[in-house]
Amino acid sequence: MTLHLVRHGRPLVRRGVPAAQWDLDPESYDDVWALRASGRLPTAAAWFTSPEPKAVQTAQLLTDGEVGVLDEVREHERSGEWLDDFTGVVRRAFEHPEEPAAPGWEPLAVCRDRVVPAVRRVLDVHGDDDVVLVGHGTAWTVLVADLTGRPPDLQRWESLAMPDVLTVEP
């Protein structure tokens, strides 16, 4: 079994609106279709997505099959306030996961404690099947760290494209 963790396509950023409500940018559809055509994702797999619009829309472009929605794999919850140093604040979240990295942000440990058990349940149910999860870079970074027993790879997080795919053999 291989776990394929897809980071959503580029969102249509709307300042003042929480990122959890952003749609997929229609100009990024070609990037999502290119990922679909790349052969990096299995043709037969169990598919699930975060409930966030940009993730659901990415999943819909990546497969013609059914896609389940898992509320627990939504992104690390953040306020809608725009941050000029987003990367620095996310790094701070990883350095101090038990604390909010910025006002209105959930501690990263809360995200981890929500995402990891949900994904482990999916893996338990799907046993030997490949699984594709469409979601978010920060959530996938904490998940990969937990599944591999390694520290979070922040360089990999920073280099993730929109869309992109990480594969893990749990």
Automatic annotation (TrEMBL):
Pfam families from the UniProt entry: His_Phos_1
SUPFAM superfamilies on file: Phosphoglycerate mutase-like (SSF53254)
Protein name, entry field: Phosphoglycerate mutase family protein
Matches recorded under Gene3D superfamilies: Phosphoglycerate mutase-like
